[in-house]
Amino acid sequence: MNENARATATSHRYGTRPTMKDVAARAGVGLKTVSRVVNGEPGVTPDTERRVQEAIAALGFRRNDSARILRKGRTASIGLVLEDLADPFYGPLSRAVEEVARDHGALLINGSSAEDPTREQELALALCARRVDGLVVIPAGDDHRYLEPEIAAGVATVFVDRPAGRIDADVVLSDNFGGARDAVAHLIAHGHRRIGFIGDQPRIHTAKERLRGYRAAMAAAGLPVEDSWVSLGSTAPDRVRAAAAAMLAAPEPVTALFAGNNRVTVTAVRVLRAHARPVALVGFDDFELADLVHPAITVVAQDAAQLGRTAAGLLFRRLDGTGEPPQRLEIPTRLIPRGSGEIAPVAG
Questions:
Q1: Sheet hosting strand 328-331, strand order edge to edge
Q2: Among 256, 245, 240, 233, which residue's Cα sits nearest to residue 184?
Q3: Residues 24-48: pLDDT tens digits?
Q4: What residues form DSSP beta bridges with 135?
Q5: What percentage of residues in the chain have a pLDDT greater than 70?
Q6: Which CATH number fits domain 3-64: 1.10.10.10, 3.40.190.10, 1.20.272.10, 1.10.260.40?
Q7: Are residues 124 and 116 in contact, defined by beta-carbon separation less than 8 angstroms?
Q8: 196: closest CA among 287, 265, 263?
Q9: How remote is the C-alpha of 81 from its chain's centroid?
Q10: Domain 176-303+335-342 adopts which CATH fold?
Q11: Is the pTM above the cut of 0.90?
C-alpha cells in the first residue's frame, strides 16, 4: 500500500460524513456560499460554484435533510411491511408500491414480518420511529391497535391483501371469495363432485375467504363437503404433502384438488406427478413456470401489481389530505384455464 492510500485508509472513519464546513474549507469559500450552491440559490459566480461542486464531489458530501424535514414535517419516505420477501407474489406488489412512491418523490423502505405478528409490530413501529410519512402493511397479526397512536399522529396507513385487525383502516384486497368460488365451480363444471381443498393457516383472512368460496361453490351445486376434504394449516411441503396424500388415499378419494395459494400448488404438483391416476388441480395464485409443466396449471390469478398500485395511490391521497372515511377496495381475480383444471374425473 502506498503512502497516500495508507493515509486515506487510516484517516477514514466509518460513520463520519463530510459536512458543509469541510466543503467550504476545501473550496476556500464561506459556509453561506456552500449553502447557496447546495440549495440552488442565486448569488454565486460560475467559477465559485465550480469549485464548490468539485469539493462536494471529492469529499462525497451529501446534504443532510434533517432540518428541512423538521420544517416541512415530511420525510418523503414510506414503509412497506411484507409477509415474506421470498414469496414471488410480493415481488410485483412491492415494485408497484415503489413506482408510485417514486412518482411522488418518495423513497420506499421495506421489510418482512416472516408471518410473525410480533415481528410485524416491531418493524412497523421501527419505521414510524424513523419518521416515514406512511405505511403500507400486509398484516401478519389480527390486532393493529398498536398503530392507532401513529395514525392519530398523522402516519397514513393502508393495509393490503388482508384487512387490519380491531381498527378501522383503509384496505385493498383481492376478491378471494369470488376467485375461489370460480375455481371450484370450474372443477364442478368438468364433472368433479369430490373436491379437496388445501389452504393456509385458518387465522389468515385470505385462507378463510378462499375456504368460504370453496364451500359456496359446493353448496350452489348441491354437493356435500366431507371434513376429510378440507385441510388448513402450514404451507410447509411436508404438511401439504401429507394432506394431499390422505385425500387421495381415502376409500372414496377426491378427484380434484383446489390449492389455496402458490406454495400449496407447487407441492400439490409434485404429489400428483407421482400419483397413479390423473387428478385435476386448480391453484389460487399464478406462479413462475405454471404454464410450462405438463399439464400446465390452471390458476386463479391475482393482480399483485394492481394491489400495490391501488394501495400506494390511496396512501398518497391520504397524505394529500383527503378526508373520506376508510375505504375497502377489492381487485378482481382471473381464472386462467391451462389444462390441469380441465382433467375429467376418472371412474372407479
A1: 107-112, 77-82, 134-137, 156-160, 170-174, 328-331
A2: 256
A3: 999 999 999 999 999 899 999 999 9
A4: 79, 157
A5: 93
A6: 1.10.260.40
A7: no
A8: 265
A9: 7
A10: Rossmann fold (3.40.50)
A11: no
